[in-house]
């Protein structure tokens, strides 16, 4: 690339970035329908022609905006989760970090697009791959919270996705229920429960059913199937829970083990 080409490419990338950020800001400020390409171009301080050069259609622009929004959120979540993983940050603080993320701007913009996608098939098909990539990235982050021997990957994903879904549902409620104390009570209660799910008996109880249980590497049958001829048939729930706790005694990170017995 020539020396002349590099500054031109940099300007092009900067213009594209401004348009994407302006789209996120405009949707957050006025909602999906009112966030027209004209308003977005004005907010980004670029011409209408420049917008169409980078994004021939509004759906292209919206897709790029959601990609950026979710990539930013993933990066933030990954960074904070690493602090939890190393013990630099208590698990309870991670919940406090997630709450404003899944009830604030990040959540509100994504909810605008989710709501519109319900009845706009073209938009829905465009955004599904973007959202799938986001959830795949989150699943990978969740698995890092505890070693496989302490909490198998599937269980780790379920526990942390439960957390996200709880907070996201609470975020929906905030629109018509402006009651911070109500939500703080729910958050504090979940902060007390979450360590027990990750490395305590509550998690063993949650995953002791036939859909999740494994013994000697043999998967338990689906719900509604008889256990009579499986290795689990003569194993009590208490025995299985005790065995799993013993296996995890030396594998869970110290800060999470401490959280199990500490008061929130």
What does this structure look like?
With 264 residues, the chain is an all-alpha fold. It folds into two domains: 13-56, Orthogonal Bundle (Arc Repressor Mutant, subunit A), CATH 1.10.10; 61-207 and 239-264, Tetracycline Repressor, domain 2, CATH 1.10.357. The protein is built from twelve helices and two strands; from the N terminus they run ααααααααααββαα. The chain has helices spanning 5-30, 37-44, 48-54, 58-86, 91-101, 105-117, 121-143, 153-174, 180-199, 201-206, 237-248, 254-261; strands at 214-215, 218-219. It has a two-stranded antiparallel ribbon. α1 (5-30) packs across α2, α5 crosses α9 (180-199) and α8 packs antiparallel against α9. The longest helix has 29 residues, at 58-86. It is elongated and about 60 Å long. The relative contact order is 0.09. The model is unreliable at 215-245 and 248-264 (pLDDT under 50). Residues 36-55 bind DNA. GO terms for molecular function: DNA-binding transcription factor activity; transcription cis-regulatory region binding. This is TetR/AcrR family transcriptional regulator.
